[in-house]
Design a protein that fits this description.
seven-stranded antiparallel beta sheet, alpha/beta, 46 helices, about 1350 residues, single chain
Length: about 1350
Amino acid sequence: MKSVGEVMSIGRTFEETIQKAIRRLMISSLGSPRQAYLRHLDGFPPRIQRRQGLQMTNIDKWFLHKLYNIFKLEKALSTCNVSNMPIDLLRQAKQYGFSDRQLAICIGSNELAVRRLRQEASISPFVKQIDTVAAEFPAYTNYLYMTYNAVEHDINFTDRGVIVLGSGVYRIGSSVEFDWCAVRAIRTLRDQGLPTVMVNYNPETVSTDYDEADRLYFENISLETILDIYDVESSRGVILSMGGQTPNNISLPLYRQNVKIYGTSPEMIDMAENRYKFSRLLDEIGVDQPLWKELTSFEAATEFCDKVGYPVLVRPSYVLSGAAMNVVSTSDDLSNYLTQAAEVSRDHPVVISKYIEQAKEIEMDAIAKDGKMVMHYISEHVENAGVHSGDATLIHPPQDLDPQTVKQIEEATAKIGNALNVTGPFNIQFIAKNNEIKVIECNLRAARSFPFVSKVTGVDAIEMATKVMLDIPVESYPDLGLPVNYVGVKVPQFSFSRLSGADPVLGVEMASTGEVACFGHDKYEAYLKALISTGIILPKKNILFSIGSYREKLELLPGFLTEHNVPCKYLETLGEDSRDKQKSEYSLTQHLANNLIDMYINLPSKNHYRRPASYTSKGYHTRRMAVDFAIPLITNVKNAKMLAEALIRRLPLDVSTLDSKSSHRTHTFPGLVNIGAFVPSLALAGNKDLAATTEASISAGFTTALILPFGDKNSIVDRQTLEHARSSVTGTASCNYSFSITATDANAGTFDEELQAEVKSLFVPASTSLAVVASHFSSWPSDKVIVTDAKGSELASILLLASLHNRSVHITDVRTTDDLLLISLSKAKHLRVTCDVSVFSLFFTAEEYPGVNILPSAAVHQALWQKLDVIDAFSVGSVPYRLASALKKAASPWSGVEETLPLLLTAVMDGRLTLDDIRLRLHDNPVLIFGIPDQFQTSVEVVIGRKARFSGHASAWSPVQQTSGAVHRVVVHGQTVFLDGSLFSTHGGRDISGMLVAHPASATGPPPKETEVPAHVPPMPLANAVLAQQTVQPQYGPASQVLSHIQLHPAFHRRHILSVKQFSQRDMYDLFSIANEMRLQVERNGSLDILKGKVLCSVFYEPSTRTSSSFDAAMKRCGGQVVQVTADTSSVVKGETLPDTIRTLACYGDAIVIRHPQVGSAQEAAKYSPIPVINAGDGIGEHPTQALLDIYTIRSELGTVNGRTITLLGDLKNGRTVHSLVTLLCLYSVRLNFVAPAALAMPASVVSAARKAGIPVTICESLDEVLADTDVLYVTRVQKERFSNETEWLQVKDAYRVDHAVLSRAKEEMIVMHPLPRVNEIDPEVDYDSRRAVYFRQMRYGLFIRMALLASVMA
């Protein structure tokens, strides 16, 4: 195999498809085979032509016949011009795959003129979809192509997606690096909720996977095709800076055809690509460049080269990978080269630049917004300038650049970016020599080095560039957080062995077919790893040197061989006629042929222009031998020098953490300590809770668990209960653990020395009397800590005793500001006092769980964060277990343990904590306070910044919904015991209760300043650390956290909801946002408690199923209660008036939902109600909540309301739902169709209001008049109860009926809605059309709308 890429072409005829494929190869042919072998047959009769063609090509007759059809049509086209071109012939040519440019050449015109001609004749391509299921099922696969062999589109165009142009065919110079850029752009767009369209035709790419983009076109990247796709898609714009040079080449023609181009203006792209314009720009802004001259004639070129001196670089404009570019060293080389260069790019100037030898090339990749840089990456080439950047060895971050050079490069880049007003990615190549820099090239697009620098730094340059181009906010120059000793090296991969006869020498024209990148602690380690990755085997002996240039001999050899005592042997290379005189032991060619050489370093004297004479040199023959015999070959002096320096270091090249990359930040902690492990059945014989506690601890990153000496109504108080606990965990512990003992009135002074030595600490409960505490203080060993959870005055007494006895006291589960102040003052007096706080107390408050006196108040919550320096440790404790129990949720030893690190890591992402804060309070301080031995080769690896839904243990309820961190791996004594949710513990935990290690440092650290905690701390917003950045992203915290989210939108708080006229579009937007949150919370938690303790009174004077049940369910889902009242069972039957009923219900509830048959009844009820009244329908008046849920349904099903055509069908006169709906729709940009019998037509007042709002309104009696354009068909019931007699109702009840026959004439994406109940206006068979029949989902949407409305009104 010799190919480096392939294309895929899709069409409906062979003629069409083969022409597309030929154009996609990016060769000079425009598609027709006339330029191929058929030109040799022109003039022969058809039969002879086919016979001759078969003999010449061995191509099957069928294919030859098809190719001959193209040939004949091309001849016919050549007889026409623009004015006399028959329309049928033009259509046939397009069906045969002729491009506009081909046709322009045939008829002597230009591409855009042909385009205009066919548009006037209504000849346009149709978008077709590949049927990937052989017509057995409807095909939805996203493989699209355009063809003229069709009469209609296969898809509809409503998305207005962003078009991203791919890289096209893989070839030397354009490969997977540009496809990576295109894919990252697509994924970024989709992450931002934008529809995407990918255009590419390379089946090898990721970008042509059907699920990468919303639309995927296997089409040419040409002016004609992109304009066609842009028009048919009604695209909002095109991104062409990700696919390399191919898209850039059509940027200006697209721009001139009024195509919206995202990013830098194509006019600026042309300025950077055109060497003359770019050079003038550099002169204007004061940035240096090599001397150059535009090539207009051979004489002028020769004169310029003589003036500046050889070597020179000859370069056409608009080239990629140095195609047709080369270094020319003599006038003869220049003469030979110019003929070829002129043919490569006739339409753009060719320039000659002074080639600066022995200069270092530097790569600058940058992103700018409106000309101001927001990120840049500087990389250095190992090879000197003259080697194409695609073939160069790249190092990032740079290791050998002078700081002054770096500063100059940054300043020059900023000037260029500003001058070109760059928005998006750009790349500049500099050369530096003697601390002076010059610009040699600027590309206003993503470069091939973007993937490399993005992966080295962890900052995705393409994601940032894409956001910048679409004006999405980005963080400028984010913190890289790279290790000090960290380098990435990119090394090219060559395929010379597949290309027989090719000279494996590097130059300005790119030759590599791939690349690898590796990482290391220095450039040498990374370089060796990268070389090995390309398949090179590092030499162990017998390295062959062949160095041509005297300068390179001086650079590489002097002193090196003698200094390192390297034995040398000299080989001879003689001419063909002298080989028989050569001894094999001194023959260079024999050593190569017999695989006696481990590596060949061949450094040619000069990188001459590659002419046939160069393929006869001895150096070329030996290089080819090395390639053909698979001997590693180095042909650049800088590479050879770096390899030698790397080899003598004898690096181990072990795999380390530097070698792996993650899209998220990772960090490694030492083994963490759970100083408050709560075991519910701790002191009960035979319990399994202890083993579960250690399992939970190790799964959460705790390699040591200090067991609290009390459980749920049981404690360790003596030898017997201690032995019960020990026996329960012996041999089943997953992590190290320790026991403590609880102080009681009964055991004061009863602990013997043996028992005291077998426990870690003494726990003094808050309820212990002062006399008992004093007794325990006097008898407890002075080297072991005393722990207490005392509060208030009890804590003050214990601190006083600690001061008198000079004892170490640890205060656990601090939850009040007074206690925090006491501890702070004690530390200021240098008492041996430490404290911890439960992690749940830092992230949840009592206000979130009313009626549960376990968590701190919001004020204390804020104080804990403000005084974090006073807190020595974080703990789990009993708070999570007791909170779950109080809420009647599942509770177990797992409660709160797994949540600890994710919550703390989320706080790190929010900027409230640092990783050092976590290490200090979960490892360093606990180890010092409790004398815990460190564990050898034990670590906890965590992932930071990866947002994910929290999924805890099945046995324990958790208030945490989403976090931005997780435990990835736990290693104990060198063995992985936990990995990504899977536990591999071998029950190797041991009891460390009796171990007491004296650490040199003090746990409490330096004494804090004598500051007081204010008595009244102002409350902070109820912001759970799990719910970061409320204004930017959806909330995924505990269900109760939705309350604080709703409070951000107070427009409805304690307000009557009587009419849709109360709502603005902003009000609906806010309400819909809350409804989305309600929907998410219901799906995750089933119910919320934001209306806990609230009562809704529901009074319905008319029968109702959906509205009544919906409000009932909504209230209960929100945690409230409902009091239902019906007219038939209330005092209404005794004659009670509506005002009296309302006043009565107001005494029992917090809001009233009312439905009444009389228009205006809800407004009347509101007059007499001291609590909010919600209108659930007042006769033929209004039904505001139904209208809201209808809008929400359209929005949820179709994505948007704007731009839709909505047809209202049925009884529009008496339908209160449609009256309210029309009022709300007037706030959007829609078209309305009112279809009803004359007797049931929409009231004139409603029609007038819609037209006054600027809404186009169509009134008719036939659905077929408007069906084809309808997006939403809103069907209403002809309500019998609204008619004075049955006869009138029977005349109109069957006026309309929606069935499959109707739907077959409608748009495929049209949806059918109905407020229900229905009678016979919708055929039940339609119910099974799950895509269109949304009226049942409509009810579900209503639940969330009413939940949002109730929470907004009542919470």
